[in-house]
Amino acid sequence: MIEPTLRLERRLLKEEFDLIVALDEVGRGALAGPVAVGAAVMDAAGSRRRVPEGLRDSKLITERRRPQMALRAADWVRASAVGWASAAEIDEVGIMRALGLAASRAVQEAIEAAGAAERVLVLLDGNLDYISPVHPAPLTVRTVVKGDRDCASVSAASVIAKVARDTLMTDLHPEHPAYRWDRNKGYASAEHRRAIGELGLTPLHRSSWAIIAPTTLF
């Protein structure tokens, strides 16, 4: 298994930047609930610290181990935050702009917690810069394909966001227990789709999406 490193972050912090704000999203493909973007702030001093043992992209960490790893990741980085965009915002502006809103909120909160710096880089998992079009001020953004796998700061953002969103969906489960968000976290499991077919959508579903199968005419 590939272990994430700080190789890229160390080089960038040594040569070009004072702070790196690493970002990763969770919940993009869910049918219900918000999308979340985790932010983890790394500085030069932090980049010299050892990566927490077992830190990975959140998808590679078991659900049982994620909460403890999220706590360790948050303690390891200079600052962290989670930005959100609601299902209603996703319906209003579309998923990519909603991701940008969540990312912008995460960056603003994380930089405020970390303290001002002149040279800040946003390190964004993936190949698409969805934050720049909506952020209120110019940003220097670098996208990194498989960043959550290869870059330890992005891995930290990944697990912090995943645990925050999973906790939220579990907390929302008692309001709509038939949909079993405690198990599926709003994603398209068979039991979730079955409940939608029987009961329809809740206000927390992304109603602009083609969630309910069209009626068969013939």
TrEMBL record:
Cofactor(s) required for function per UniProt: Mn(2+); Mg(2+)
Keywords linked to the UniProt accession: Cytoplasm, Endonuclease, Hydrolase, Manganese, Metal-binding, Nuclease
Reactions performed catalytically: Endonucleolytic cleavage to 5'-phosphomonoester
Pfam families, A to Z: RNase_HII
Cellular compartment(s): Cytoplasm
Cofactor note: Manganese or magnesium. Binds 1 divalent metal ion per monomer in the absence of substrate. May bind a second metal ion after substrate binding.
Domain RNase H type-2: 18-218
Primary location recorded for the protein, binned into one broad class: cytoplasm
Protein EC: 3.1.26.4
Gene3D superfamilies listed in its UniProt record: Ribonuclease H-like superfamily/Ribonuclease H
Binding site for a divalent metal cation: 24-25, 125
InterPro entries: RNase_HII (IPR022898), RNase_HII/HIII (IPR001352), RNase_HII/HIII_dom (IPR024567), RNaseH-like_sf (IPR012337), RNaseH_sf (IPR036397)
Function: Endonuclease that specifically degrades the RNA of RNA-DNA hybrids.
Homology family: Belongs to the RNase HII family.
Protein's name according to its UniProt entry: Ribonuclease
